[in-house]
Write the structure tokens for this entry.
Amino acid sequence: MHFLGLRGMPRRVYTYAPELHWNSLNLIATSGVVFMTAGMLVFLWNGWKSWNSGRVASWNPWAAGGLEWAVPSPPPPYNFLEIPTVNGREALWTAAADQPVVVGLRTDIPEQLVTHP
């Protein structure tokens, strides 16, 4: 704001001279603390209530279709015992009962499974 010839409100001043016309701006800035405090109290209350009486979420609480929801929480170090195959965009929703299993990949060197659309 200095380029407009305006100077900012000086800090660490609890009251301003009336000719500066900053009293209304100071009141608005000070009243903002009420809303910030209310928001923080709601956040802390929600955290306390969730910690004490919240339900434990299921393994896929949103019924999402991605593979990241196919493993339990916390995930095991290996993620999947067998590499899953995907039939569509939402892998969990389009999984077939007779889904093929990828086998034969080596474990001593990194390998990739490459497919085509």
